[in-house]
């Protein structure tokens, strides 16, 4: 009888506990069901990007000549002009064998595809080299200085040394992922302690140590050292590693003298089959190879565009009004590079600018460039009529003035030259972009989070509940806006992915947009 009473009491307690638990759980459900997350239309958030504004300058001239180059493999079918003949812009000059032109086009298109494949292979090899851990020759053990230094922790905003107490300057925006690592501003003599690397390895975070001019984030970036905490071989806690040289400092190394370093090789934290010096050389060579292949591809694509025009009707037209000069014999073509003919311009004004090799695939004949006179302020438009096949150092850089790239001359015809005179300088301006630009979506990068190397947003589904939507991202513009290449449309609605309501399943309400 006693056992029955005990069992009955236990049963009652269990039922009460279950009811209580159900009440608490139900309370949480009711509370969460009342929570809402505000969502914004992607169309409203989209910061459309149509390309970069780039500038050039050039000299207005009225004596521009068009050169027509034909090789013996092109197969001239008919020549429509004679030496000394006057021609108008758009007149037929000669006809090529379309069969030959089509075969040349097909060959050039195959060359473009081959170059693309070579670039892909070269990029994969570069990625492999960058992920290779350098090998370090064993060295005599040294007794390093203690991690607690005698110098001040910071010089202005930059760290003289990095301990785990150091604060990244982007702590409010970063999450320590490969796509969004923590960044530390360092002096040129700064070093990182082994204890920091040890804790970095435990946390598995990505960090970047940066050295900027004038020890300011706004200064020019001089060097950076990116470290993946999940991949490093953890050094001794009391060791020190130079940010500038990525090498271990020995007991004889002064904080302000990073020239005296352990000669066992850079980045000794990571270990592999090549020294850091060897890897740096291989990486540099591979990057140059990719640059050269990319330039070859852009030049081949330019040739493809020209061959397409030839293979359609086989006709080459005059792009200036002028006189035919130096016409060659079509049955005895020169082999020394001499043009087949020239058209010496006699009417209108022309201007020559320069296109960066990086923009060869974005600027085409027929595009319009804005012209503005330095002297009178006269403004007008010019049409690009020709892009030269070879780079030149005699043209104004079009696209930023980067000394590491080549520039190709382009010629533009000014149809309405009122207010301009021969020999005056003008500014040239146009917007260039990828064909797909403008179709992409650009939103504030704070709306995009990452998970296991994948980017995602929180989107409202058809039931007005938040769901995780993975997206493919692209370039970052203006420093805070990221391109969404796929996974999102302007019809979608997304929530800011931080805060207590930034969870899947939360009911959404449309925002009036005021707080954004």
UniProtKB/TrEMBL annotation:
The keyword Phosphoprotein does not apply. Gene3D superfamilies: 2.40.420.20, 2.40.50.100, Helix hairpin bin (1.10.287.470). It comes from the Bacteria. InterPro entries: Beta-barrel_YknX, UPF0194_transport. Keywords: Coiled coil. GO terms for cellular component: cell envelope. Residues 350-426 form the YknX-like beta-barrel domain. It is found in: Cell envelope. Its main location: other. Pfam families: Beta-barrel_YknX. The keyword Coiled coil applies. Residues 105-132, 283-310 form a coiled coil. PANTHER family: EFFLUX SYSTEM COMPONENT YKNX-RELATED (PTHR32347:SF14). This is YknX-like beta-barrel domain-containing protein. It comes from Eubacterium ramulus.
